[in-house]
Amino acid sequence: MLPDADAAITRDGKALILAYDHGIEHGPVDFEPNPETADPERVFELATHDAVTALAVGKGVAEAYYPSYDDDVALLAKLNGTSNLWMGEPDSAVNWSVEYAAELGADAIGFTLYGGSNHEVEMAEEFRDAQEAAREQDMGVVMWSYPRGQGLKNDTAPDTIAYAARLGLELGADITKVKYPGSPEAMAHAADMAGPTKVVMSGGSKTDDRAFLETVAGAIDGGAKGLAVGRNVFQRENPEEILDALEAVIFEEASVDEALEH
Ligand code: FBP
Fold it and tell me: Is 202 in the pocket of ligand 1 (CB under 6 A)?
């Protein structure tokens, strides 16, 4: 990692990345709980909320919508992604180049690595190319570090998440996004293993407000530097409300009770 390479997508050294690559990764089913979020315009609007430090989207969505938002939203170009229709060993197609992302005005790149997959070697080599190209463009690098594949029994076990966090440091990410390993202590271990690379928690499937905020607060207590979240924001009826609460917990050190009173 390079000090400050992520400055354009962080605030006070912390990140709240709004992830919106679900149209690729999961398909339209993820928009059903809040159908207006099938329209990227709605989510770009949401990303103008003060709490959001970057919006992660794929190429086509960036091409179509980012030109109207480049003053108000930091763009995290999610370079690779594969649909849920793919049934093979975990892998992810690289859908756009770093150079093209820079032309569209991206501030950082995002890249999924499935450590443990039979495709890990090729994915790591693709990450190398993207990471070095990002350095040439002065763009930050965010790794979605998701160990998975036929050899892996539990992809959120504390040791596995610590390994995922370490891969981000070893391969040159500035921020590494990992699944929640189940406790603040396990998150602390992962954050320790990542050294200066910032670890952020991945949102996961939608839970109720208090449970979600308590998990986020626990992750922050454990040393996570924020959150990269999709469904737990955009699947809610009032996504702005949960962004207010997340802003309080992540950036203002509010307790969950205080955040819920906002
Ligand atoms: P969520 O907060 O909705 O879990 O989104 C985080 C994310 O990493 C997205 O960027 C991505 O689309 C999705 O999760 C992938 O989830 P998975 O591969 O675990 O199904």
Answer: yes
Query: Is 231 close to ligand 1, i.e. is its CB under 6 Å away?
Result: yes
Torsion of Cα atoms, 252 then 255 then 258 then 260, to 10°: 100
- Tell me if 43 CB under 6 Å of ligand 1: no
Residue 92 CA to ligand 1 centre (angstroms): 13
Give, using CA atoms, the residue closest to atom 8 of ligand 1: 202
Q: Ligand 1: distance of its center to the CA of 110 in Å?
A: 12
Q: For the chain, give every domain's residue range.
A: 7-261
How far, in Å, from the CA of 132 to the mean position of ligand 1?
25
Separation of CA 133 and ligand 1 centre (Å): 25
Residue 143 near residue 171, CB atoms below 8 Å? yes
Distances (CA, A) of 46 to 10, 23, 147, 178, 259: 17, 17, 30, 23, 19
CA distances from 209 to 42, 87, 122, 143, 246 (A): 21, 33, 39, 27, 10
Mean pLDDT by 10 residues, the chain (262 residues): 94 98 98 98 98 98 98 98 95 98 98 97 98 98 96 93 98 98 96 98 96 97 97 97 98 96 81
Ligand 1 pocket mutation pick from 176, 202, 231 by most atoms within 8 angstroms of CB: 202
CATH superfamily of 7-261: Aldolase class I (3.20.20.70)
Residue 155 has which token pair? Answer: 């992809």
- The CA angle 24-235-160, to the nearest 5 degrees, is 65
This model of the complex carries an ipTM of: 0.94
CA distance 114 to 102: 25
